[in-house]
Write a structure and sequence with these properties.
The protein is α/β, with parallel strands linked by helices. Helix 2 links the parallel strand 1 and strand 2.
């Protein structure tokens, strides 16, 4: 009797296993199933950006270090808004085929320790494959870590130090370095000055950003016969600069080059006007843009010359039309943005081009190494006039040496020169 009961129990158990197997819906190939719908087809190649092994869209997370509330937040905020807007535009327009791209951005308030903390969160928690950074100090502090982690790093810093691939193998410059900008200004002064050899002063803040181009500018000026007669250190958030300007006036320079952001630049121009100083002021790229005019007014800004590394929103370039179309969808117009927004948009656009190139080069994971290779394949990337075309290679991560100058006329920036290099 007991044997018969055991036999019946085994038979019932076997039947239950067969029923469960039939309901499982599995397949011999082990394909992934989802509750949202059928699994995507496997890719037959890398051109559509899909993973050949899974057929699913690959995901790239880009970290964004923003200065919204720190010492350079005056220009950092519109720059970050431009980066964020580009990724939103990318999503709206279909993005990169076969690739989902996300931007994870955080405000680090221009504090290097906070930048290091957030970077580690990007790497360990968000699993980013690339980073859009901001300041010179934090970018230079992170470059060894970035290299170890193999994460391509764009920065709003254009420090000459980042050109050194031995020390910064994963850093890329998307515009002319501060040093190249300064050299271009010195060359322009030399070529256009009338009379005896020109003299210049250098006005900068005591940060890695402020100091970055100073020695290179001095060396190049000496090389081409332009004398640097004075240097003055002015805080990046200075609201008064009369004492420094009075000291500068004693040396009577023909020209002064400013390495600041909008706020301190405006202080310098305002106090120079108050003191009746007639030196011609030039600014590097963060010392240029609409914010200077907005702060000091058109009368004081009139005749001020600066680096226009990127397009003004009202300039007639093909790339501006793309931004205008995006803004229209947001219920905004070009009047709602400024040049630093365009600069941020353009930086993100170059990063996206590198990710797209990487997606075409490999069917595997779009990690930092793959994106670096994608960026290094970009040659003469046309930005639609938003900035000078950029070229990267395995031997050169400085996208361009070219920049241009603009001048304030009747309360508006106008192009003074085409894109050019001091080597021209």
């Amino acid at each position: 009797m007991k044997s018969k009961n055991k036999f019946l129990a085994l038979l019932v158990g076997l039947m239950m296993l067969l029923i469960l197997a039939a309901c499982g819906g599995g397949n011999d190939a082990g394909e992934k199933t989802t509750t949202d719908g059928p699994a995507e087809s496997k890719s037959t190649g890398g051109d559509d950006g899909k993973s050949e092994s899974t057929g699913e869209k690959r995901k790239v997370v880009v970290g964004g270090l923003f200065d919204l509330t720190g010492g350079t937040g005056d220009v950092g905020t519109p720059f970050a808004e431009g980066e964020q807007a580009f990724f939103k535009h990318l999503e709206k327009t279909g993005g990169i085929e076969g690739v989902t791209v996300e931007l994870s951005g955080k405000d680090y308030a221009y504090a290097i320790p906070e930048a290091q903390k957030i970077y580690q969160q990007f790497r360990d928690k968000d699993k980013v494959s690339a980073v859009l950074g901001w300041g010179t100090g934090d970018t230079e502090a992170l470059r060894q870590q970035v290299a170890n982690d193999k994460l391509p790093y764009f920065s709003a810093s254009y420090s000459e130090n980042l050109k050194n691939l031995d020390e910064s193998p994963y850093n890329f410059l998307t515009a002319a370095s501060y040093s190249d900008q300064g050299r271009t200004i010195v060359k322009y002064i030399k070529d256009n000055h009338e009379g005896d050899n020109p003299t210049i002063a250098l006005l900068y803040n005591d940060t890695a950003f402020g100091r970055s181009p100073i020695e290179d500018i001095k060396a190049y000026a000496a090389e081409i016969g332009v004398e640097v007669v004075d240097e003055q250190v002015i805080d990046v958030q200075a609201t008064e600069a009369q004492s420094q300007l009075l000291n500068m006036e004693k040396k009577n320079p023909d020209y002064a080059i400013i390495q600041q952001t909008w706020a301190a630049t405006s202080t310098i121009l305002r106090d120079a006007k108050t003191l009746g100083i007639d030196t011609q002021f030039f600014g590097l790229n963060w010392a240029s843009g609409e914010g200077v005019i907005d702060i000091v007014g058109a009368d004081i800004a009139e005749g001020y010359i600066g680096i226009l590394s990127h397009a003004m929103p009202y300039e007639d370039f093909p790339g501006i039309a793309e931004i205008e179309e995006y803004l229209k969808g947001e219920g905004k117009t070009l009047e709602d943005i400024d040049q630093k927004f365009v600069q941020g948009w353009t930086t993100a656009k170059i990063m996206a081009a590198g990710i797209e190139a990487a997606a075409k080069q490999t069917d595997g994971e779009l990690n930092g190494e793959a994106i670096r290779a994608g960026l290094e394949s970009l040659t003469n990337l046309d930005l639609g006039g938003l900035g000078a075309p950029v070229t990267f290679s395995a031997d050169n991560h400085a996208g361009t040496e070219q920049t241009r100058l603009g001048i304030v006329k009747n309360g508006k920036w106008e192009q003074l020169t085409d894109y050019m290099s001091y080597k021209d």
